[in-house]
Amino acid sequence: MGRRNFTLLFALWQLFLVAAPPPWSRNMFAAAAGGGRWELLLPNIGIAAMHMQLLNNDKVVIFDRTDFGLSNIPLGGGRCRQDPYEVVVKVDCTAHSVEYDVAENTVRPLMVQTDVWCSSAAVMPDGTLIQTGGWNDGDHVVRVFNPCNDKKCDWVEIPNALHRWRWYATNHILPDGRQIIIGGREEFNYEFYPKTPGGDLLYNLPFLAETNDPGAENNLYPYVFLNVDGHLFIFANNKAILYDYIKHAVVRLYPAMPDGQPRSYPSTGSAVLLPLKNLQAPGIVAEVLICGGAPKGAFPASERGVFMGALNTCGRIRITDPNPVWFMETMPMARLMGDMVTLPNGNILIINGAAQGSAGYGDGRNPVQTPVLYHTDNPVGTRFEILNPSGIPRMYHSTAILLRDSRVLVGGSNPHPNYVFGNGALFPTELRLEAFSPPYLDAATAGIRPHITLPGSHSKFGYGKVIEIQFTAAGPVDGNLVTVTMVAPSFTTHSFSQHQRLLDLGGGGTVKPVGINTYHMTAVTPGSGNLSPAGYYMLFVVHKGIPSEGIWIQMV
């Protein structure tokens, strides 16, 4: 937190080897099931995975920050960063961004020149990753990454492309194809990218100032979701608004979280927009779920060496209701700095984090290594399922994202202002990359799991259009238990997955056998960009809660 002076770390150079609910609830959760499987993918990717984004070529762009000191992977090819503004190493021949190839299980170094520390990003409709802001000489910079398959693409930087410095901001893709960039440290405003020549301005957002706690802030990395009416749900600290970004006006105020506790950075809970369903019916319901975090006073207390217990509650609210009410639930365990990943079957994986302290360097204690599955549609009291733990603590600066094969990629953890290794370090810098396979990927589900054979990968679809889908399954298929979902790949950092959303297209009633173990069905794409902004999505067929491997489609 704050502007700090950093100590030079002479790191060891090392190549990698590798119905409306009631407004109350009981403190109940499902019994431990112990499902899911962990897999170590790479023992050393060279950098701490502070930021992650899956692209439509099944490669993941990962980056940390340039002022950690030397990383553990050289840039190669004689390349070096020469930066007179750098506060740690002014000539640095190591990489601070990598591209992870899911199919090959390899990484290659990428060249990022200016500091991307605690920045934000979103993928544009054409599949280009636009990353914004950071720290020091990178705080006004926009960086562009165009996905490629020849291993030649790299970051392109556009200096002074932002009106204000964006550090701890949140981005979201809009129905018109732009992205909105909201907030950041000491920035109670927002702007758009790309810019409109001669007409794109900076807009004030007083809500961010109103939710700014002196000494703790708790309004950073605000939770932002595009509502089904085209307005933005914005949550910071313990309050939320619905915002019209076209008229630059607050549409409605939501009730504050009943416990009054902060949830956004540095209290750092996590949040998701729950699956959007019945998309062809009037009155589509949108719900937001916010879980965990640290209580009031936790950040300043942790800076003094006092580590308060994390929150063990979630708040769930129907943001489309005329009189919305927060419904509070109790998790099996307290957690802050957790990541919430929307799975293809509509359930939510809660993973990573700590049970004490706050976000910030050295401010967390007692890692929570056990993931929890939140069954979105289960009755109250049976929604939480405890899964198998990882052997790796994932503390501050950890990340988790959904892959097209339905696994969850997990990396990061560096609660230090530089790279710190060794047995004496409390939570050393973590360079290992893991995959978590949720229980739906257990071997026992193989006969249930569908396999999509039509449409082809990267097919394009307009709004309100019929998709012809063909799939196979080893065992008999119950069409009443089949649905089609599409998931937007999110940009994940600091326990929040920006632009994360799942749309349930239904379609199970259309399932018909067309051959041996082969089935045909149809589904209808969302009706507007308010539901699904243009761009790339992973499309899944889900049978009895078991998802297929996804295919890439593009909404245009």
Please describe what this structure looks like.
There is one protein chain. With 556 residues, the chain is mainly β. It has two domains: 405 residues, Methylamine Dehydrogenase, Chain H, CATH 2.130.10.80; 112 residues, Immunoglobulin-like. Helices cover 2% and strands 35% of the residues. The chain has two helices and 44 strands. The strands form eleven sheets. The chain has a six-stranded antiparallel beta sheet, with no helix packed on it. Strand 40 and strand 41 form a beta hairpin. The longest helix is centred in the middle third of the chain and has 6 residues. The chain is globular.
Short characterization:
This protein has 556 residues and is an all-beta fold. It has 2 domains: 37-441, Galactose oxidase/kelch, beta-propeller (Methylamine Dehydrogenase, Chain H, 7 Propeller); 444-555, Immunoglobulins (Immunoglobulin-like, Sandwich).
Break the fold down into its secondary structure elements and pairings.
Blueprint: E1 37-42, E2 51-54, E3 59-63, E4 81-82, E5 91-92, E6 97-101, E7 106-110, E8 120-123, E9 129-132, E10 142-145, E11 156-158, E12 170-173, E13 179-182, E14 189-193, E15 203-204, H1 206-210, E16 223-226, E17 232-236, E18 239-244, E19 249-253, E20 270-273, E21 287-291, H2 298-303, E22 313-318, E23 327-330, E24 339-342, E25 348-351, E26 354-357, E27 364-367, E28 372-374, E29 384-386, E30 398-402, E31 408-412, E32 433-437, E33 451-454, E34 459-461, E35 466-472, E36 482-488, E37 491-493, E38 496-498, E39 501-506, E40 512-515, E41 518-524, E42 535-543, E43 546-547, E44 551-555
Parallel strand pairs: 34-44
Antiparallel strand pairs: 1-32, 2-3, 2-37, 3-6, 4-5, 6-7, 8-9, 9-10, 10-11, 12-13, 13-14, 14-15, 16-17, 17-18, 18-19, 20-21, 21-22, 22-23, 24-25, 25-28, 26-27, 28-29, 30-31, 31-32, 33-35, 35-41, 36-39, 36-42, 37-38, 40-41, 42-43, 42-44
